[in-house]
Design goal:
It is built from nine helices and twelve strands. By secondary structure, the chain is α/β, with parallel strands linked by helices.
Length: 277
């Protein structure tokens, strides 16, 4: 609290003098509340809460948002616009502490719904895109990533039929990338061999790099593994893997500003190269 013990004692004695009653019983080895102190405690807490509310209201009016905002991001996904948004927000609101957690998309969305996170960048399927408080920000092609010694490693691209005979390493059912892949296989009447599953994209990539199968990931998830994996576009999967921002419904004062920075960062990243609309 950055206050010395003697300073606290002096303030309590002054408060007791003003109220005309002892608030603490100091006769034992430790101080304890008197009946008057217990009666005053709830009112004291309410007064402190009201003081904090006054500070928050003034800070919002002046644009000086304080406190902490908890943010999530799908594991092993390098998305530069998202990092740029966090940096821009921090520059504008340095008094707000940002925490960043990595996890699977499903778990991140559960944490947002539970109020443990204010905002998360997650993978979704096209069917999720119409949900409230969810904004698709990036579409990426699916990639088949193989070790340099894999029989497919010299191909510039592959088809689902070419992948079907080979063991695959995938994200779990329910993730956005897995949903896109499963739907494409079902439409082509193919039944691929999913040999291994891992919840973290980095683990999927590592298993493929060790020769245990073909990893099915998005482009950004394979970018950091270029020295160990060959990234092959899957030419007959036309539906992209979507990344989206999902946020809580609570009135966190910093959330609208962070969302603004995210929208601006993703729009700026898409503008120069977005020739497809």
């Amino acid at each position: 609290m950055h206050i010395s013990q003697s300073g606290v004692s002096a303030q309590i004695r002054q408060l007791e003098h003003e109220l005309g009653a002892a608030l603490l019983d100091r006769s034992g080895r430790t101080a304890s509340l008197t009946a008057a102190g217990a009666a005053a405690l709830d009112h004291a807490r309410a007064a402190l809460a009201a003081t904090a509310a006054v500070r928050e209201a003034v800070d919002q009016v002046q644009g000086l948002v304080r406190g902490r905002i908890d943010v999530g991001m799908v594991a092993s996904c390098t998305v530069e616009p998202f990092f740029a948004a966090l940096a821009g927000f921090h520059h504008e609101y340095p008094a707000v502490e940002i925490t960043l957690a990595e996890d699977t998309s499903d778990r991140l969305r559960d944490r947002v719904r539970a109020g443990a996170l204010e905002l998360a960048l997650v993978g979704i399927s096209a069917a999720d895109a119409a949900e409230p408080r969810l904004l698709p920000v990036l579409g990426e092609p699916l990639i088949a990533a193989v070790a340099p010694t894999h029989p497919l490693a010299d191909r510039p691209r592959v088809t689902l039929a070419e992948l079907a005979p080979h063991p695959l390493v995938c994200l779990p059912t329910g993730t956005g990338i897995r949903a896109v892949f499963d739907q494409a296989c079902a439409a082509a009447h193919l039944h691929p061999q999913v040999r291994l599953q891992a919840a973290a994209p980095r683990a999927v990539a590592d298993l493929a790099a060790r020769g245990l199968g073909v990893a099915i990931l998005s482009a950004s998830m394979t970018a950091e593994h270029g020295d160990r994996l060959r990234a092959l576009p899957i030419e007959d999967v036309t539906t992209p893997a979507l990344l989206a921002l999902v946020w809580a419904g609570g009135p966190h004062p910093a959330l609208p500003e962070l969302l603004r920075h995210c929208r601006q960062a993703f729009a700026a990243a898409a503008a120069p190269d977005d020739v497809t609309g």
